[in-house]
Amino acid sequence: MRDKFFVCSECESGTYPEFFLEDRGICIRCHKDKVAQYSYSRRSTPEKREAWNARNRAWCNSPEGKAKIKARHKIYYATKRGRDAHRRASHARRARIANAPSDNWKASEVHSEANGRCLYCGVKVDLADMHADHFIPLSKGGSNLRENIVCSCASCNLKKSDKMPEDFIGETL
Questions:
Q1: 3-state helix, strand, coil in the chain (%, to 5)
Q2: CA gyration radius, the chain
């Protein structure tokens, strides 16, 4: 049985202790409204938005900010999702530099379509160890489209480098 009942100083409605912030004297609903209003008001005009962005840039460029961001990235990129995002971003960046067409693809899709095997040597490759290789290299006019991405083991991908597939396969035979 609940033995306490509080009245909010903002909306004057009664509420139970689990929905009331005693230190502020308001209910959770009013607190959420205030937070949303504050969040909107500090960026509601172009001047306020620019001031907010300037403070944010200053913090990001400070030693403390850089250290916190680096620590956050280190944790994120240690996850499967983070590694996959980093891989896609790296491929997309290289494709932009080469002015190659690009689309979104996932390494897990490439891996499963190849049944987890390297296209060049046929060795079984774990998803974590797989290299997503551009079949026709970006430097030779290839694209970053899903059709041009193949599953490869690290040794084959590093040996292939930016060679055309027929040149690389001719070398290995």
A1: 55, 10, 35
A2: 27
Nearest to 12 by CA among 23, 2, 24, 27: 27
Which CATH architecture best describes the domain 79-172?
Orthogonal Bundle (1.10)
Q: pLDDT tens, 1-15?
A: 456 777 888 787 777
Yes or no: say if 135 and 143 are a contact pair by the CB < 8 Å rule: no
Per DSSP, 19 falls in state G
User: Which of 105, 113, 86, 108 lies closest to 143, judged by CA?
Assistant: 105
- What pLDDT digit, counting tens, does each position of 56-71 carry? 999 999 999 999 999 9
CA 21, CA 24: separation in Å to the nearest integer? 6
The H-or-E segment that residue 68 falls in is helix 63-77
